[in-house]
Amino acid sequence: MVGLGPGGEETLTPQARDAISGADVVIGYSTYIKLAKPYLTNQTVLSSGMKKETDRARVAVEEALAGKRVAVISSGDPGVYGMASPILEIAPPELEVDVIPGVTAATATAAVLGAPLTHDFAVISLSDLLTPWETILRRLDAAAAADFVIVLYNPRSHGRDQHLEVARNVVLKHRAKETPLGLVKDCCRAGEAKQVTTLGDMNIEDVDMTTTVIIGNSQTKVLNGRMITPRGYVI
Ligand code: SAH
């Protein structure tokens, strides 16, 4: 399992690059195959026709058991809403499986916004495809109540237009509408766009599926356009 990082070559680790170029078979969602293109030589690429993660995981294990070196690619880190768990769940004990980490969207976007994650933070996906929406809201409510900085993955997609608004209202139960909030769309990719705004002012129309949202905690401030959650040092 290989994490490609958020975007281009600069944020792909040498270990991940070597795993891809040393593979016989590369498996992944077509968007990720595109990101991996520069490192592909003559590998067999399996992407189309495999919409389901479980199908990809099964094919990956079959190919590996047949003696191939297989790289299953995810964006960011494969262990963060990625392919690492379905594969480890089905891989037989005799199969050698390595998880190769990548720069995840939370830290990549935090770096673009400043230093919003310098204290305790929670990462929550708003995708209810595999997680009940009530569970997502319960976790969001708990994280907001406990004053965690909150990173939202999968904040919006077609058919889930209201989710982000509902999520904002849950956080607003515990946090001021002036709380700093940062958005980064297509981090480390062509057309990267960032915005530092507030929880109350966030325009949902500015958010899409390739955006990560970071909601500050009660201590987060904006200095020179950058989001900062103080670590606690006396400066
Ligand atoms: N395994 C990935 C996350 C997959 S979930 C990782 O570790 O980063 C997909 C979500 O990740 C997207 O909806 C978006 O919220 C976030 N994301 C992934 N790549 C991103 C990028 N380049 N810029 C901004 N957000 C990104």
TrEMBL record:
It comes from the Bacteria. Pathway: Cofactor biosynthesis; adenosylcobalamin biosynthesis. Residues 1-202 form the Tetrapyrrole methylase domain. It comes from Dethiobacter alkaliphilus AHT 1. This is Precorrin-3B C17-methyltransferase. PANTHER family: COBALT-FACTOR III C(17)-METHYLTRANSFERASE-RELATED (PTHR47036:SF1). Keywords: Cobalamin biosynthesis, Methyltransferase, S-adenosyl-L-methionine, Transferase. InterPro entries: 4pyrrol_Mease, 4pyrrol_Methylase_sf, 4pyrrole_Mease_sub1, 4pyrrole_Mease_sub2, Cbl_synth_CobJ/CibH_dom, Precorrin_MeTrfase, Uropor_MeTrfase_CS. Belongs to the precorrin methyltransferase family. GO terms for molecular function: methyltransferase activity. The keyword Methyltransferase applies. It holds the Pfam family TP_methylase. One of its GO terms (biological process) is cobalamin biosynthetic process.
